[in-house]
């Protein structure tokens, strides 16, 4: 794996945790989770538009829209649900527990999706190492939750 890609992924993970705290603080200050989520969405749109010169922007033809599986259109709604959960729960749970729970749930889900090749992922069997890794993540969250 190239070093730059790894570095960007690590940075994204760190920003995800910092984002949880920033969004939770905004939610606490404003007292309106939906208003906070809309503010976050507006900030997302600004970042996306700022990225256009680097990644481009084009409009696909109608035939491409027709090829999209029905469930692929739900990704934005899933992201919105995650942001609302972050706003409402991260401040209550703390950064370690919130991030631990969401990352662990994501990892366990990803192993399941990979194992069955669901939602467009290539099939990768859930072998011993992957299952052990999931178990260790769950144990790690349990240990972090004890203190």
UniProtKB/TrEMBL annotation:
GO CC terms for this protein? plasma membrane
Give the protein name, as stated in the record.
Answer: EamA-like transporter family protein
- Which source organism does the UniProt entry give? Methylobacterium frigidaeris
Query: Keywords of this protein's UniProt record, alphabetized?
Result: Membrane, Signal, Transmembrane, Transmembrane helix
The record lists the membrane-crossing segments as 34-56, 68-87, 93-116, 128-146
Q: Please, which domain of life does this record's source organism belong to? A: Bacteria
- State the signal peptide span: 1-24
Matches recorded under InterPro entries: YdcZ
Question: Which Pfam families does the annotation name?
Answer: DMT_YdcZ
Q: Output the lineage of the source organism.
A: Bacteria, Pseudomonadati, Pseudomonadota, Alphaproteobacteria, Hyphomicrobiales
Tagged with keyword Nucleotide-binding: no
